[in-house]
Amino acid sequence: MDFVEQLKSSIDIVKVIGEYVRLRKVGSTGRFTGLCPFHQEKTASFNVYQSRQFYKCFGCGVGGDVLKFVMEVDGLTFPETLKLLAERNGIPMPKRAEYADPESKLRGVLFDIHTIASNLFEASLRAPQGVEARAYLERRGVTPEMVQTFELGFSESSGQALVRRLAQERFTPEQIEASGLVRKREDGSGYFDAFRGRLMFPIHNESGKVIAFGGRAMREGDQPKYLNSPETPIYKKTSVLYNLHRARDSMRRLNRAVLVEGYMDAIGVHTAGVNEVIASCGTALANPQVRTIHRHADTVIVNFDPDGAGANAAERAIPFFIEEGMHVRVLALDGGLDPDAYVKQNGAEAYRTKLGAAGGYFYWLADRARAKFDMRSADGRMDAFKFLQPAIQKITDELERAAIVNDVAGYLGVDASLVLERFRKSANDRRPEAPRAEPRPQIPALERILLNALISSEEARVEILPRLADSLTANFTTREIFITLRHLVHDGAQPDDGPQTSSSAALFSAVETRLVGSNQTLLHEVIAADETGDGSFSLEQARSCLRRLELDFQKRQVDQLRTRVRTAEREGRVEEALGFMAELSRLERELRVAKGG
Ligand SMILES: [Zn+2]
């Protein structure tokens, strides 16, 4: 078995995908479903088939094996995916694992550079030069355990520490520059560290690798106060959330996420025992981040800074979540405190209580509106309602929308019926949910069941495949799949070691990788329509499918011949007609025998 097959057979696709998507088991079959991470949807059309170790989305059409999933969801190349899954599952990589394609190579180097930088920063924080940063952390109540958990560090002020360290590792200047962690001097005389004299927060991707840093200035007057890594081949700001790799298990378990703004907020809230906390890290929230959160939880509690900028950011974030079909609550802490300061002042218990009591976003928005407009006049009250309209309009469920309109109208003291009328009008120009489901191809049931049986059962393959005539399969919708399967089994590529399921999963994936375009989609359909759900087909089922397919085929041939006889007779071609008749009676005899047997 080659390394790729070995890796795939030792991991379970349901477990791997389950770390990215909340999956629900469907009945007693080996099928799981959840919200597709690759397109925006509110009802689950994403399926994972355990027995085939394969996933398929009927909304956007994507499908494949565990490697393809991780590649696409984490944005990795194929070699990187192998490395990641091997590391995570303690499977040693083959010696010659140095992959040559330049993209993987550079990204691999960038991951290495970030790991080295992170270790260097951590060491500097413990060293004498880290004294200011340590004092700052102590003032902010960050314990040594938290420093360790969050891998906090310090970038020393000389501007040469990282440059020197990376030069020792023999990285090329191009690689070092591509990391975004060092900069070239304008006069071209060398490089200097991008982060100097800053408290360093490593930023991880979803699988836990350091891909960037945020740095907080430690000296009064150093600008900007917070500095972030630039985008690099391993860091895309719009899809990264701070602390996600630590929070995602809790998010799925509790089905909620707490979204804060800054690194220190995330650390403070985490200290309060709220592990499902993530931070947007100062960038405006974008769609990919929202979808990432939704993969792990249905409810988000937005707890931004209560100041003007924080409230504006929350106001902008809310419609994204509503549009994504999530439940949004807003926590506004009293005393103008940010989450970190609140936990320090009032304790973990008080914070968790506040969190549990956080109200629906529309009450928070209504309070914002009340503060903005003159609520004593009818016009002011109506303006306040108009302010809420865009957010409320995004609620797709009509009943929920009506209930909220009623609530909020009462809260603001406006006439609910007037307001409902407004919404009824604007409800007409809502846009439909995109993208539309792709049309599902029609595959005859007998072909489908026979294919599933052949992929599942070696017994069936041994007996049935040699009996499949080319003339028979030539008429199949799925003929390419049958041909590919026969070639594979004939070439001995079918792995016969290992338990039944894993070998049929391997055979399936071997067939899948050899098919392209519409034929691959057909195969996905075949597997998705596996009625047993776990590939438990019997030899008897395969035999009966083959029998009926042959019968159908012969009947069609008989019909065709009858037409030919009639045409030849009508056109006076007697010789030809006699020939067709002889063939016809032979076929009819065969058909009678077949039916009898
Ligand atoms: Zn999809």
Task: Write structural notes for this entry.
With 597 residues, the protein is α+β, with helices and mostly antiparallel strands. The chain folds into five domains: 3-99, Zinc finger, CHC2-typedomain (DNA Primase, Chain A); 104-235, DNA primase DNAg catalytic core, N-terminal domain; 237-357, 3-Layer(aba) Sandwich (Dna Topoisomerase Vi A Subunit, Chain: A, domain 2), CATH 3.40.1360; 375-438; 549-595. 54% of the residues lie in helices and 10% in strands. The protein is built from 26 helices and 16 strands. A five-stranded antiparallel beta sheet has the order 1-2-3-4-5, with helices on both faces. The protein has a five-stranded mixed beta sheet with strand order 13-12-14-15-16, with helices on both faces. β9 (198-204) and β10 (210-217) form a beta hairpin. α15 packs parallel to α17 (398-412) and α25 (539-570) packs antiparallel against α26. The longest helix is centred in the last third of the chain and has 32 residues, at 539-570. The chain starts with a helix and ends with a helix. 37% of the residues are buried.
